[in-house]
Write a structure and sequence with these properties.
The chain is α/β, with parallel strands linked by helices and 182 residues long. The protein has one domain: UDP N-Acetylglucosamine Acyltransferase, domain 1, CATH 2.160.10.10. 16% of the residues lie in helices and 35% in strands. The strands form two sheets. Strands 1, 2, 4, 6, 8, 9, 11, 12, 14, 15, 17 and 18 form a twelve-stranded parallel sheet that branches. An eight-stranded mixed sheet has the order 3-5-7-10-13-16-19-20. A hairpin with a 4-residue loop joins strand 19 and strand 20. The longest helix is centred in the C-terminal third of the chain and has 26 residues. It is globular and about 50 Å long.
Length: 182
Amino acid sequence: MLLLPFENVVPRIHPSVFLAKGVVISGDVEIGEDSNIWYNTVIRGDIAPTLIGRRVSVQDNCTLHQSPNNPLILEDEVTVGHNAVLHSCIVRRGALIGMGAIVLDRAEIGEEAIVAAGTLVPPGMKIPPRTLVMGSPAAVKRELREEDFQELLRIRQSYVDKGKLYRRLEETPLERSQGSAT
């Protein structure tokens, strides 16, 4: 991982956070307790603040950035899927951003909403709480069901647990000869 200051502002990261190898975080970024940031994710706080709450999972290859005077905010218990791009938006508590989704400036994702994989949420769009949105541009498809909430809870907890496990695994990685097939 690479942590960099920007204009004398350094990232503020809770000690319990898992930062995978290859992560780059710079500038005005705050990450809360039990969050996990996965391989090759880039979080640049060099234009406006990025605030990431507790128990947030930002999965592999994500890009998080901002525009002037427009912070990026991920509230507690948010899940961001692989390869997502988040730019100067607000993602409310418990929401899930699917793999490869793009959420642009001033968009707001409501509490416990699901943004489907590959969805484009255009600038300024407001996604209602507890809905499923998909498409390009995003459109509400339905209200979430009880089984959706159970799946959100399962995903959140599994990434908190995986973050703790991978943190231990990275402390004692396999040597190349140990991981080779024979």
